[in-house]
Amino acid sequence: MDYATRTLLKSAGMNVGWLLSSGFFYWLVASSPASAIVSLVAAIGSGLLLFLAIRIYLLWFESIKQHPPSNFAVPALALVVYFSLLIAMWSYLYVFLARTAEDASFPFCSGADPIDPKQFGLLESIYFAVISFATVGYGDIYACTSGSRWALVAELSNVVTIGFIGLPALVNMVIDLAQRKFANIKSTNGVTDMPFVTGTLVVGMAIIAFAEPVTYEVLTAGNMPDGEIIQIYAGISAAMLISIAFGALMVATNRMLGGHDTRPILLKRAIRLVVLGYVLFVEGIAYLYLLIDRPGANAFAFARSGEHRLDFGSASYFSLTTLTTTGFGDIAPLSPTARMATIGEIMVGIVFALFAFGLVISAIVSQRVQSRV
């Protein structure tokens, strides 16, 4: 591992330590007046560390122009940590606004009324920051005072900055590295893919994607929807589908941008992997939502009066609208567990999209390079 990558890894580790320690200190003083000061310090500290982390990442980016990394595990981890720092900065700022506001003019509302200050803590703040940053916006929490709205405008400006500056830079990096990697690949060996491996992976993912919902419906038809068998099946399915989706994309992406002896996969197989990966990820999170929405849990709020519980169809629908940042608001997470799961899906979904994006772009570049050889 080169010096720049080691520095990037150390920076990520330091930032993780800050996130854990700041969260621990806030938890210690959460119910005291000191929580306002701690949240403000945590917000400022997260912002400063984020600024420093971006500079370190830019130095790493300059270094790889001369010495491409063997894999992208460390920079991908660093991006996840940086995103967490960004969310922490805004979350602590929202907590500070909430702790210093008068009860009559609480900065966040639900429905037509301000939220009870006792019901708005760090988890609710993180939830609001994530759904705002990801542009989901279920409408269950929104800014309703001048101060909180200006803060939200500032947060959303980060979305614009990342969208118009960060993503084009990422595209350029992936294309540049892929071109240099595949320019050295000759067609003399006659092999540009591993058709058996990738073909088997695609077929297996397709079978699982279609078989899982059918099996679930068969089980629910013969058993109680909240029975032990159904719960066990949903739990195993959630873990298995999410793991397969990420495992397939990580293996494929590492082959595209990993070691020098890797072989590029065809564009059509890359697209199939991405599509099936998304399907499995949506289904896996849907099973997780079904586990959370147990009888009496009151985990989700529904706009229609006739809906009170999730079934597999509505859970998949909510999972997909969350992953695609649509957020119609007809279904919204209500309990802390449901909101934590939603936060996880949004944040992991962003990382998932980056892997898928890099895979397809690299496949396009490799196909063009091969056509010129």
Number of helices: 10
The overall pLDDT average reads 82
SSE topology string: HHHEEHEHHHHEHEH
Task: Return the CATH architecture of the largest domain.
Answer: Orthogonal Bundle
What structural class results from the helix and strand content? mainly alpha
Arrangement of strands in the largest sheet: 2-1-3
Described by strand count, sense and barrel closure, the largest sheet is:
3 strands, antiparallel
What assembly state would you assign to the polypeptide chains in this entry? single chain
Radius of gyration: 23 Å
- CATH topology name of the largest domain: Helix Hairpins
CATH class of the largest domain: Mainly Alpha
Residues in helix, % = over 70%
Unreliable residue runs? 186-193
Percent of sequence in beta strands: under 5%
Determine the N-to-C terminus distance: 32 Å
- How many separate domains make up the residues? 2
What is the 3D shape? flat
Number of strands: 5
